[in-house]
């Protein structure tokens, strides 16, 4: 066979693979509605209940990504800084709660000792 025929076969086979492969995958892939119909009733109910919450979480995440991208730093560093900031805020809140609980315990002890 001539070189032209070989090249022609190669181009046809490459086109079939490059175009036909994704088209076949798209053809056999089920839609979201078909997948939802395959769920058992409990999963359908839970999916409907949690759908709004997941959508809100995704929107919050996208909003945070937009904020991080506005920074001069890398998104990863901006995310790490925000995570560190939240962690320190939680630690300070926890420390304040522990301090208030300690003060309340001391006041209760004083009241108990004072009454006796």
From TrEMBL:
Membrane topology: Single-pass membrane protein
Predominant subcellular localization, coarse grouping: mitochondrion
Entry's transmembrane regions: 6-28
Alphabetically ordered keywords of this record: Chaperone, Membrane, Mitochondrion, Mitochondrion inner membrane, Transmembrane, Transmembrane helix
Pfam families found in the cross-reference section: CBP4
InterPro entries to which the protein is assigned, alphabetical: Cbp4
Signal sequence annotation: none
Domain of life: Eukaryota
GO cellular component terms attached to this protein's record: mitochondrial inner membrane
Gene Ontology BP annotations: mitochondrial respiratory chain complex III assembly
Compartments reported by the entry: Mitochondrion inner membrane
Residue segments, region Disordered: 86-116
Family: Belongs to the CBP4 family.
Role played: Essential for the assembly of ubiquinol-cytochrome c reductase. It has a direct effect on the correct occurrence of the Rieske protein, core 4, core 5 and apocytochrome b.
Protein name: Cytochrome b mRNA-processing protein 4
Lineage: Eukaryota, Fungi, Dikarya, Ascomycota, Pezizomycotina
Gene name of this polypeptide: CBP4
